[in-house]
Amino acid sequence: MLKVDEIQNGVVIDHITAGTGLGLYHLLELEKLNGDASVALLQNVRSEKSGKKDIIKIEGDVSRLNFDILGYLDPQISITVIENGHITNKIRPQQPKRLVNIIKCTNPRCITAIEQDCDQIFALTPSGRYRCVYCEQEFKVKP
Length: 143
Hints:
The protein folds into two domains: about 10-90, 2-Layer Sandwich (Alpha-Beta Plaits); about 100-130, no CATH class. β4 and β5 form a beta hairpin. By secondary structure, the chain is mainly β. The chain contains three helices and eight strands. A five-stranded antiparallel beta sheet has the order 2-3-1-4-5, covered by helices on one side.
């Protein structure tokens, strides 16, 4: 059986949809942590609730990470903050009200398609979908 030690200071990102942990690893840019932190990515771990799940454990300084994206990517995710070997906080990230440079507008007439340095900004609508703040194009997930 695989054994990964418990962490003393850091975070555990749990309940990640099975098979999506590596993509999340890259979106959070965990490879850029270098010597500041140790990262363990566990894939297809047995889970009583969902059958299988992925888990990311990060030991060390996580202050530079942007966890806002997690609420957008996977509403089932939970974040457990650990300090001195004890759980200090458990968070279920909410959908962020704005996404900046996370998704891209697909409207060819949008200013973001024309201007090179224009940020891709999407705002959350009351219906729970994201719309481009410039052209109002609704973001559609590609199948």
